[in-house]
Design a protein that fits this description.
Structural class: alpha+beta
Strand order of the largest sheet: 6-5-4-15-1-17
CATH class of the domain at 132-308: Alpha Beta
Oligomer: single chain
Strand content: 15-25%
CATH topology of the domain at 132-308: Rossmann fold
Amino acid sequence: MHQAGKRTGSKIRVGLKHSLLFLCLSVFFSGAGMPAPAQKEEAHIHVIVDLVQLNVAVTDSKGDYITGLRPPDFLVSEDGIPQKLATFSEGNEPTRRVVEITPPPDKPATAENVENQELPAQASGETLGSLTAGANVFILFDTSNYMYRGFVFAQDAIADFVRSLENADKVAFYSYSRNLSRAAALTADRSTVLRGVRTTVAGDDAALYNCLLLTVKDAAQFTGRKVVVVFSNGPDNASMVPPEDVAELAQSTGIPIYMISTQQARLEPVSTAVFERMTAATGGKAYFAKNWKEERRAFSSIRDDLAHLYALSYYPQPNPNTGWRAITVKLVGDRLKNYHIRTRSGYRPQPARFSAGGIPAMPAESAP
């Protein structure tokens, strides 16, 4: 009797184990009866979108600058996609944020529906000072063996140009022959720059495009407006870098290139064509001076250009194009249609920076 009770109890325990095992397996596969696992937190992907900055010159048929234009006068598109201006300024005036105001239903959209407000102390990661300061000017001087004639006159023209720039501007002075010499890093101290100009000596072959590429890379590290002014006396005979690469980098980083060359370079068709294409693509200008007086006038023209440029910026609207993006700037209204616009023709977006979760994204190298 005792043995029978044991066997019965054993059967009950075995049956209970089987039942519990079946229940556990059922719950495992069905998911019922178990607390739902915590929903996996989706990673938030953030794309760093650069602020696209444009330097825009507006002139009439005589080449005189048109002043007093306002944000509604400009229509900017990228690959045909209309863009909304984020900031606006003329010449050396303070940069203003462009704020769209929705007009009342009973009033049409007009220029008065756009209000310009002063930028706050910080905007888009840049300080107000970096946006409103005058242009950072990088001067690149040809000290190759092409420069033996007229070397001193060129130094004088550059020195006068440096002195004529306003105090708000910072200047860097580089020279080149086969290699690049950074004679004066970007500084507001004019005496340091002038010492760099006066200590240059003429010498080796000319690697203009190699050294110009390095100059553009240096300039791209700084925020705000920046330009490169090149004084070159002749063709490039020592570079490994093609001029097309230099032009594309300058366009993508928003750096106009101004080139002053002598009449000797004008006689070399290839260099002439390259200088003109490069400056036009970046929004700058090319000058070919017959003598030292024309060299001085060319530098004076560049100074005037910097003082009359409109500075526009925008955050690009969604655009699937990760390659070259064409920029078009037009003026709105019949009274402005005959004016001429000079600015860069496009850019290639910098590599995107991503972040997941709460990890902040790395900032882009430089705004285009």
